[in-house]
From TrEMBL:
<dbReference type="InterPro" id="IPR002347">
    <property type="entry name" value="SDR_fam"/>
</dbReference>
<dbReference type="InterPro" id="IPR036291">
    <property type="entry name" value="NAD(P)-bd_dom_sf"/>
</dbReference>
<protein>
    <submittedName>
        <fullName>3-hydroxy-2-methylbutyryl-CoA dehydrogenase</fullName>
    </submittedName>
</protein>
<dbReference type="GO" id="GO:0016491">
    <property type="term" value="F:oxidoreductase activity"/>
</dbReference>
<comment type="similarity">
    <text>Belongs to the short-chain dehydrogenases/reductases (SDR) family.</text>
</comment>
<dbReference type="Pfam" id="PF00106">
    <property type="entry name" value="adh_short"/>
</dbReference>
<keyword id="KW-0560">Oxidoreductase</keyword>
<dbReference type="InterPro" id="IPR020904">
    <property type="entry name" value="Sc_DH/Rdtase_CS"/>
</dbReference>
């Protein structure tokens, strides 16, 4: 699929992996709509790349519907969807207070929020985007569209405190092939990337010694991944017509330790 001239939606496109992917798509001539809750950052990226910003809460049908309607009014029906929206707060399943020895379990509201944003939000955007893609005529390649999701190595190597996050990302991995099969008759491909430790705003907010330690734990190259490296793979999954139903780690060969 040649992205030049095609319309694309990037969720979580105001920062990190999503922003890098939005820039990479625009650099190749795609018309890009950025879905995000961060209005200031989203509008700034949209101005930078000549795209459009659409405020979107992926946990809400109404908000997501409005964002897709706004994007399609501005740049047309998208053939490309990149799902990068996600959150990752951590808490142990059961923990003991150091002060008084009291026991508490994982806050269920937080568990549900992570699942709703990361897993259900990803599926919501896939379903709504694909429903629009099927209305399009196939391209010369025979394709109608292509979708890339963002999981995490935590789907396979979840660390202490990542039960909810790992469950949400494991769900994305688990649904990739079934969705690709659901959409095979409509000529829409679906793939998922499992990033390792990347230079996202969350990571870059940590102390430098922690960042250095995390980078040193990567077999090679011994550093955090860079968002443009994620974007490179996302674009390849869009452009290579034989990639479908795959879950691909992008992690410098790291296998996460328990902590």
């Amino acid at each position: 699929m040649d992205v030049n001239g095609l319309s694309a939606v990037v969720t979580g496109g105001a920062s990190g992996l999503g922003a890098a992917t939005a820039r990479a798509l625009a650099a190749k001539g795609a018309k890009v709509a950025i879905f995000d809750l961060n209005v200031e950052a989203g509008e700034a990226i949209a101005r930078e790349i000549g795209g459009v910003y659409c405020e979107a809460n992926v946990t809400s049908d109404d908000s997501t519907d409005a964002a897709f309607a706004s994007a399609r009014a501005a740049i047309g029906q998208e053939r490309i969807l990149i799902n990068c929206a996600g959150i990752g707060p951590a808490a142990k399943t059961v923990s003991r207070s150091r002060e008084d020895g009291s026991i508490k379990h994982y806050p269920m509201a937080q568990f549900n929020t992570i699942i709703q944003v990361n897993l259900v939000g990803t599926f919501r955007c896939i379903a709504k985007s694909a429903a629009g893609m099927v209305t399009l005529d196939p391209l010369e390649s025979g394709e109608r569209g292509a979708i890339v999701n963002t999981a995490s190595v935590a789907a396979e190597d979840g660390q202490v405190g990542q039960a909810a996050y790992s469950a949400s990302k494991g769900g994305i991995v688990g649904m990739t092939l079934p969705i690709a099969r659901d959409l095979m008759g409509e000529a829409i491909r679906v793939n998922t990337i499992l990033p390792g430790i990347f230079e996202t705003p969350l990571m870059l907010g940590m102390p430098q010694n922690v960042i250095d330690s995390l980078g040193a734990s990567v077999p090679f190259p011994k550093r955090l991944g860079k968002p443009p490296e994620y974007a490179m793979l996302a674009l390849h999954l869009i452009e290579n017509p034989y990639f479908n139903g795959e879950d691909i780690r992008l992690d410098g060969a790291i296998r996460m330790a328990p902590r």
